[in-house]
Amino acid sequence: MVNSSARSIQYASKSNSERCEEKIINMTEASTDFNDNQEGINPLDLITALFHCADPFLQQEMALKMSMCQFAVPLLLPNCDTNECTLMLWALRDITKQFRFHGLEENSITRTDLPLISFVRLGKNQNLSKSEFLNKLLSNKQQNYDTFVHRKLENGNIKKQISNGLVEISWSLPSGRKNTDIFKEPVAVANLRGDISDFEVQFDFLSKISSAVFLFCDDLDSNQTFLESHQLGSKLVLICTTNDQKSRGDLKQKLEQMKLKTDSTILKDGKMNDAEFVAKLKKAVAEIAADSTKISIEKMSMTAEDLRIHIDENNPICQKAKERVERITRDIKNIPEYKMKELPLQGKPWKEISKLEKEMCRLKKARKQNIEHYMSELKYQIQNLRMEQGNHTMNEAINQFISGLCCSSNEQLYFLKWMKITLDSLIRKLLSRLQEQYKDECQNPTEDKEHLRDLDNQIASSSLGVQHFVRELSQLYECAHFQENWKHTALKKLPEICAQLMLNGFPLELIDGDASNIPLTWIGDVLAALNKLTSPHNKIRVVTVLGVQSSGKSTLLNTMFGVQFAVSSAKCTRGAFMLLIGVSEEFRSELRCDYILVIDTEGLKSPELENSYEHDNELATLVVGLSDITIVNISMENIVEMKDTLQIVVHAFLRMKEVGKKPCCHFVHQNTAEVAVHEKKARERKMFLQKLDEMTQAAAKMEKRGNKKKFTDILEYDIDKNNWYIPGLWLGVPPMAPVNTGYSEEVNNFKDGILDILRKTKVPAQNFVEFEEWIRSLWKAVQFENFIFSFRNTLVAEAYSKLCAEFNAWEWTFKKHMIDWYTKSETKIFNMGALSVQSVDAPNIDHILVNFKHEFAHELDKEEKIIFDKIQQYFESEEEHVHLVENHKEDFLNSARGLRRETETDLRNKLENAVLIQKGIKKVELIKQNQRNTMKEKVLKLISVFRNSRNSLSESQLNKEFKKLWDDIVKQYSFTALPRQDVVKEIYRLLHNNLEMKGRAVREMLLNVTSLD
């Protein structure tokens, strides 16, 4: 949760906060000025104490959240015990800023070169509040931001105990809008707390790295020695206050006597109001920023080392992890090429396996092939692809990655964090270059479309994160399991390692968004390891978020549960990731679970998958089916898309018997800021539900499930309680807008509502093994479904189904007419054949065949035109929802053409066969006649021979001579048997074609049929 009012703290009584207060007091014991009677604590002391108490990873999270609130963050953190300070380089590594200066720029703030303007104070300054004026300097006219804590803020006047010497840093970043930008250039601003005479190391550090130092000093006399003894390495701007004209003159004279080198002096007298003073400050800062050297926080570390300032990431474990990451990433120049070389298993082989596995369930390309043979061929191809994966040797990058996962717990955390930081930085740099090329190419009047397409593909494939390395491990594991070849013993430990990572809060990829598949063996073994590690406390509830791309789903989950799903604008979530949140012991009995498993999904309707509904619908159906609670993240501009997706989910649930439970559905409406929005939107909610009910009824009608009449029959939904209205995330225009406190508060209320539902639910929680079985069952059901997922929504599916029914009727009429014509033609051919046998003067049957073929072509043209006309009339009719299937019109026209070609080939062959049969009959009759004559002649000859013979033959000798004569005659002719017809195969093919739209269960039954007897 991010709350911009977090610094407004209330002092708790001792009875409620003894442990917390004890830590703060221990840090402030060194201060003899601590007043026991003074209730409260300065916010700066609290921030300093919290950063000292936090581990390095919590420090990063705190700094990130403070930056999102537009709070200044610690740059140098003082230690009151040792009087030393630490450069918070590691703590600031997670902060990424986006701004527009000479084009759009996005980078980690620690690696961004910016002019640094430092503000310091010398002596006691009772007249001006440095931090208050800094806030005015960094605020635009529309809104004032309290970036730095000052004496006029709540508890800001309480004396600081441990935060003197703290150096804070903040940024002023342009958005490209002249009316709201404070400076044209991006600027970093540092603020040293306390008197620089007490913190010379911090002052020396700032003077060496700053483009300019603005020094607030009222008493030059008392501080003359200090000023003369410190030669600044940067510009000095002196800021003093005077009460009258005489004092102004004395001040100028004093500066000349001191020979103090200042680039400018800003004097604030009694006549100058705050607005004029801030305007002078802004002008001075703008002039310096426009013409000064720039420095990043990373480069500041060299100056810090020279001054013997500690650097938070200079510890052996952190540096060792960093070196390991550098060995993995140093060769990355082109991300697609790197992935092909170093992460080959998740590329083409895995994507091909995914397609083949889906084809084994859907058999879309089987056509007239023998199903058993076709299935065997698919299995053989999968086996070959697994063998191809197995032939790859484990490269150095993956070896180093596995080593990073297998090291100590602390080093493992550093390693994964460094991987994320380094890869994010590389992606931003490479994507920025590609997007700039794409922009230039689009603006080119003679744009090369082929080059544009190539750039588009490069941008789409230029995603690389920790998840890609884990995905490669999953494929290594799946391949080893398939081949039963564990030559790399480390692979066997990977499920347990990843299970432990999930327990530590790292997300694991459930659905590979690039291949649209689940590595079931890998996921199953990780969940089994989780079950083993957590047993008997292994009960889980599942919460999922759905929404269109870039609608703030990941940010919503991060704010709700304090998790860290990726929200970088350089990349969007692909597929689905699951993350575990432990339930504390005192709440386990209430929620009746030990963990909440949160699933973050890829944004629906992404530009890369334009007009491809199948991927979105499969993803949505699976994750909703896995969930106890589904959060549907919508806004007014994408409500139609989400309604379409929900209709398909409902329709898919009607077709899949595996979805036995009834997921609870909550709608989160983002960017709504009205006070009475819930009451005002009541009518819209009712209309939205009515529309979903209509779709459900249409789907139930199509599936012959009349008992399902409402959306709430499929998904649990309360029109009043299951809608949440949340204001926008930012209060103003980024990059200088802070997080809207109302956003965090409403998200927190939503979280309370979700937990309350989990308390009241009567459905028992499942363990990890049961969840894994549920994934397998549901994914199998999704893979077998090949009809409904192809459509945008139920209305489109219904309209398509109705058009299919009409087309089937037209097709039957077409076939019936052509079969009737063929039957008549065949009868004529038979009659002509019989006549030709009886009479030599009968017409030539080949001439008759030519005439029939001409007549046949004419009939085909006529009947094809009738179907074309009916298709055209159907689309021009006022048939309900016909416009929804307009884009399928060409498909049906092509089907009509295909029907004509198929019928033409089939009947032409039958006509020719009929003619051949008649020719064969005629030939047989001629053979028979010739044989009769030959037999008669030879028999008479044989009789004549034996009649003239002196020796008479016995009956047996006569039979023997006759048989020999008969065999000699028969040998002169060859007899070929007719080809054997596979009737069972043909029946199976026809069944498959006729039932392909009847749902997953029917197709699965057909696949399991081994005999039609």
UniProtKB/TrEMBL annotation:
<protein>
    <recommendedName>
        <fullName>VLIG-type G domain-containing protein</fullName>
    </recommendedName>
</protein>
<feature type="domain" description="VLIG-type G">
    <location>
        <begin position="537"/>
        <end position="776"/>
    </location>
</feature>
<dbReference type="InterPro" id="IPR052986">
    <property type="entry name" value="VLIG_GTPase"/>
</dbReference>
<dbReference type="InterPro" id="IPR057365">
    <property type="entry name" value="URGCP"/>
</dbReference>
<dbReference type="Pfam" id="PF25496">
    <property type="entry name" value="URGCP"/>
</dbReference>
<dbReference type="InterPro" id="IPR027417">
    <property type="entry name" value="P-loop_NTPase"/>
</dbReference>
<dbReference type="InterPro" id="IPR058641">
    <property type="entry name" value="GVIN1_dom"/>
</dbReference>
<dbReference type="Pfam" id="PF25683">
    <property type="entry name" value="URGCP_GTPase"/>
</dbReference>
<comment type="similarity">
    <text>Belongs to the TRAFAC class dynamin-like GTPase superfamily. Very large inducible GTPase (VLIG) family.</text>
</comment>
<dbReference type="Pfam" id="PF25974">
    <property type="entry name" value="URGCP_9th"/>
</dbReference>
<dbReference type="InterPro" id="IPR030383">
    <property type="entry name" value="G_VLIG_dom"/>
</dbReference>
